[in-house]
């Protein structure tokens, strides 16, 4: 098992138990599991995950969370941005039609 994967599992165990993710706790789990690791790995993972809510990341991974900020932006901008977006969509449609009509067919 790679050290990175072992640190991920240790972090998931700590998050599942609602325990703060610290380098010492990750090291303790890795030692108990008999994983050989460089001493800097637990610190890197703890530092990277200190501002993250791991449970939130896991539960929203398949729910389209990436599209949520884009969908929230027009709501924050107000109704003035909505007509501009519709105009842009209308401009894109003729470009697609031009690409379709090249003067020859697939079976000519």
Low-confidence stretches: none
Share in β-strands: under 5%
Indicate the overall shape: elongated
Strand count: 0
Helix and strand content put the structural class at mainly alpha
The span between the termini is: 57 Å
Question: Rg to the nearest angstrom?
Answer: 25 Å
Helix-strand sequence: HHHHHH
Determine the mean pLDDT.
Answer: 74
The number of helices is 6
**How does the major sheet shape up?**
none
Please bin the fraction of helical residues. Answer: 55-70%
Defining key terms:
single chain; 6 helices; mainly alpha; about 110 residues
Could you characterize what this model shows?
The chain starts with a helix and ends in an 8-residue tail after the last helix. It contains 6 helices and no strands. With 108 residues, the chain is mainly α.
Sequence-ordered SSE layout with sheet pairings:
Blueprint (H helix, E strand, L loop, with lengths): L2 H14 L6 H10 L7 H10 L4 H6 L8 H10 L3 H20 L8
Helix pairs in contact: 1-2, 1-3, 2-3
Quick recap:
With 108 residues, the protein is mainly α. The protein is built from six helices and no strands.
